[in-house]
Amino acid sequence: MANIIPTLLLLLTLSGLFVGTYALGVGINYGQIANNLPPASHVSVLLKSLNISRVKLYDADPKVLSSFANSNVEFIIGLGNEYLPRMQDPQEAQMWIQQNVQPYLSQTRITCITVGNEILGGQDIQLAPYLYPAMQSMYNALVNLGLHQQVYVTTAHSLQILATSFPPSQGAFREDLIQYIQPILTFHAQTNSPFLINVYPYFAYKNDPNNVPLEYVLFEPNPGAIDPNTNLKYDNMLYAQIDAVYSAIKALNHVNIQVQISETGWPSKGDENEFGATVENAGIYHKNLIQRMQQRQGTPANPTQPIDIYVFALFNENMKPGPTSERNYGLYYPNGTPVYNLGVQGYLPRMHFSASMKNGLSIFNLLLLLIGYLIFG
């Protein structure tokens, strides 16, 4: 009889009924530019099975927010770039909060609103003059509604806002963007909100694979890089890029603003010229990243400040424009199958309950047959 237990556990594991519960230790970006994603109610089960309790959206999808009611999941929601000009009007900002935030707060934990995504240094640079006023308008609306202690306001930037990223101690913002960044930094300091940056070491490797060591960008063993001004050693590019952002902020006379990574990831597939976009590299990057986040590491220049990261992304998104890599950043395929092994196992409910029941019954019947064979055979 003692031999039955290991066999049963093996069968349960293979059947998908025995679900791992190790926490990933990171937040996740839940993008939805696809036509084949599972319903939000099923996604909530998947994230619960992975112990993921922080989710970042690019909108304020009511179906998602409702599906996560009474859960312990904390949400960052997004105000799309196209809304920025309208948010100059205080009434428009307050109406947006009343329609997209206030109705859900009693049951869903919304803690942050990102006003736009990659406005500075991105393709929507023409919206730059609207960014800070929109952030201030949204914050004022939260104050008027008594929600500013519960929900903070920020925006997410790409690393293209930097003119210099190495050595990290010499990190500096682009001169043409300082007029927009300085008031945003003052806003963060006054409201105690974080500075969000989207950081992808993959891009550096893809653009220069002959000179950027793959091990350095994948957190694998490597000689590292020394900052000649501080003598600090960096064993990976992500930490160097984060410290470069801190240096750029400090150069504008701000020292108490926290930097958070709103996006980082690695594609599992790409075009022929997208060097390094493979399943193997994506798995290594995310597995090593998650291990470091679980250790609550800081960067060499900020060792006591644990890095706060949102991985991009939960699912592959088949309708995203651009090169092949853009549609292959997901940790999961839309059917809930992992793209690569991260050492954890999640569970996505089947689309049809009857099919799930059939699967469960077939496993149960198999277990009964096995028990009968082991006991009486």
From TrEMBL:
Annotated GO MF terms: glucan endo-1,3-beta-D-glucosidase activity
GO BP annotation list: carbohydrate metabolic process
EC number, as in UniProt: 3.2.1.39
Residues making up the signal peptide according to the UniProt record: 1-23
Coiled coil: none
EC supergroup of this enzyme: hydrolase
Known catalytic reactions: Hydrolysis of (1->3)-beta-D-glucosidic linkages in (1->3)-beta-D-glucans
Protein family: Belongs to the glycosyl hydrolase 17 family.
Protein name according to UniProt: glucan endo-1,3-beta-D-glucosidase
